[in-house]
Amino acid sequence: MSGLTSPNIVREDAPSGSAAAPTTSLGHLALHFRPGEQALASRFFELLGARVQEFPNKFSDEPLYIIAMDHAAPARADNIIFLFALKPAQLELENVIKKSLGVGSRDPHPALQAFLDQRAQWPESYLHFGLHFSRLEDLEAAVAGLRKEMASNPEFGARIQGLQILKARGEEGDRAIDERMAASPVFSQAEEFAYGRHGVQVHIRTDLFATGLSLFGSVVELDYVFTGRGRERNAFNSAIF
């Protein structure tokens, strides 16, 4: 797995003949796990093929993890995730919010229930982060690893609330994509298509970690894009899907 990738950023007003070398990349993402759940949270990224390193955290009794999504080049300063425990102040705030909204109760606030229902049906519409795979085989292996772990480790499996599998569709006449999807151990049974052409998507809903309020969990998107002649447009570079 090559992990996250980012395109060169080119200014529309850049002078002709200027250097095309990339100047900006996606640096890092900070995620938080609930106290005591570091093993479950870090395991998620191990299953995706990332390199996970554990370090002492001088601000907490729990460790800090540096997760290199590109395991072939783990010493870079970009393409990484910091994973560490939630702070007590946020946990206290979330407990107040939970009580106010009835999170986990038989009578949740209507606005909360509407939000949860909509997110379950359309996880891509919720705050999420995407991980791009350069090889479809690696993405398929990651999904297989997640499913195996969910089946063999009930504690881990209970923390994955949903896997939405969306297959790729190409332009009319692109038989290679259709045939690859039909042969895929992951996407052959998928009934719905990904949002854009020439790519697959897997949306994972989990509360193993969070980018914001942990009480709402997170959505992680796994992507792969077919490239080549006739496949220039996709959801990441074109408004035409």
Written description of the protein model:
With 241 residues, the chain is an alpha/beta fold. 27% of the residues lie in helices and 21% in strands. It contains six helices and eight strands. The protein is globular and about 55 Å long.
Largest sheet: 4 strands, mixed
Please give the radius of gyration in angstroms: 20 Å
Average pLDDT works out at 89
The side-by-side strand order for the widest beta sheet comes to 1-4-3-2
- In the predicted model, the low-confidence regions spanning at least 5 consecutive residues are 1-18
SSE topology sketch:
Elements: E1 28-33, H1 38-47, E2 51-55, E3 64-68, E4 80-85, H2 88-101, H3 110-121, E5 128-132, H4 136-152, H5 154-157, E6 160-166, H6 175-183, E7 199-206, E8 218-225
Parallel strand pairs: 1-4, 5-8
Antiparallel strand pairs: 2-3, 3-4, 6-7, 7-8
Short description:
This protein is an alpha/beta fold.
Features:
single chain; 241 residues; alpha/beta; four-stranded mixed sheet; 27% helix; 21% strand; disordered N terminus
